[in-house]
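=== Structure Prediction Worksheet ===
Name of assembly: unnamed complex
Input type: mixed (protein and possibly other molecules)
Chain count: two
Listed entries:
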Amino acid sequence: MSADYLASQLFNGLASGAYYALLALGLSVIFGTLRIINFAHGAMYMLGAFATYYGAQYLHLNFFLALIAAPLVVAALGTIFEVVFLRRLQGTDPVYGLLFTFATTLVVVNLMRILAGAMGSPYNIPDALSGATNLGFTLYPTYKLFVIVVSVVVCALVWWFVERSLLGARIRAATENPMLVRALGIDTPRLITITFGLGVAIAALAGVLAAPTTNVYPSMGDDIIIYTFAIVVIGGLGSITGSIVMGFALGVLQTLGAVWYPPIATTLIFIVMVIVIALRPSGLFGRPESG
Amino acid sequence: MDARLRILLILVALAGLALPKLIYPIVAIDVLCFALFAVALDLLFGFAGLLSFGQAMFWGGSAYVVAILVQTFHVDAALAVAAAIGYATILAVIVGLLVVRRSGIYFAMITLAIAQIEYFAAVELKGLTGGENGLPMDSRGTFFGVHLANDTLFYYVALVVVALCVWLVMRVVGSPFGTVLRAIRQNETRTIALGYRVNRFKLATFVLSGALCGVAGALYALGNRLAGLEMIDWHTSGAVVMMAILGGSGTIVGPIIGAGIYQVIEYFVSKTPIGQETDLVMGLVFAFCILAFRQGIAGGVLSLPWRKTST
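=== Predicted Assembly ===
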């Protein structure tokens, strides 16, 4: 096994970590304010990919525009969903939020199966990003590099927004003490809606990025959502930093693990989760009292 | 137990006795097995307040144990069922030790992820499990030498087993142990302050629930003469949660009703043009249930006006 081969596997790991990081980040952002685990996150990722596909099919929307437009469309659907349904579950046991979004997942995925068929359709890598780039030590697919770069940039921006900006500070304050924040004259329900929309947009963006790499099909979010759950648990529920770091780290670990022993690829993340919760139940970046 | 629930339970028991005459015996077996599966899940959720999204690991895992032992090794089915329950129990102890320290959404996510380990292990161990194709059995084998090929006969044997298990759950829930579980659910901190070792109670409940899910899964595999990957899939873990809540969580009789209704809806939807996508209808029904009818059917019956009994 050559060093070049390992290095390109490392990049493959970063590329799959790019999706995990985006999904885990979106899940954490939503959990942070709504205290809900959005089971429908995988379905929203899938909708992002379908929005890209249909956009190209019917509106001749090119991929780079879809990167902006598809997350906006899905986020719009998500905010309607939050205002109409999830808001009614505020104040109930958070478990009901999980169950409601689980039911939503079944509805959305099966609806898309009726509309688009279970097999789905291919979506080609845009010309500008096809081919390979010379990294000095190896030729590497340009599209995967693009995915890594977009993911890193978006994760950094969202991290800055939540942890450093004024609106982010208000969102965090609303999480800690919604009553007090309302008393200060800030529209808390609107903050929650904005945050939910943001989380959904990030999931949809991951879906757009995934569209050219896999077939676009209705159950494409089914497996990845469970990995994302495990990653969020490993990183520490609600920790933005933990989600981003562990998303990339576990993508790399999974890929390198598969080099060593291919069948481990599907389970390695879950095994890591088991070890982490046995040693540090609140996750690597979580605060011990949470959860 | 509330008198209204007792009436429901008698009705359910009568329906259970008549079921193979009302619908295909093989469908009746499915309803029966899912009823026990839902009761077992709800022992955990409805009484200890722990929502497991991974109970399919016990149901599906024990189905595979039965199928492998009967089909591949020609072991007597009674012994295979015992081995399957043993497997489910040991697995529940191991998983339980890991998960009972957490609760709420965390618990749901962790059980879900751990169940996926078994799922992918079953995918990878093709030689043993048949991989994507599942593991069909040529026959149900023999129970202590007796053949149970007749579906109606098998149903009534399974009915006895399921009835015993449900009775066991009722005894557990009605015992001082069950009272502690309710206390944990209502106020865990206070229960700890009273000196109870809460995690031990949770672990015991988790193990009992897992073992009973194993009983149900073993019977289901024998009934259908098949163990398949979809039995470990998280959709199955979710389906049984839906059954328990639709029927009425925390009432024992509710999950049984929920399992029956779920199967009936699934049967009728499968006759329509969208028959492949029964989950669409189940998702809509469940979403409505979570928004507007969280107490479920049995819970709805409990909220009907009723004169106070002299107790």
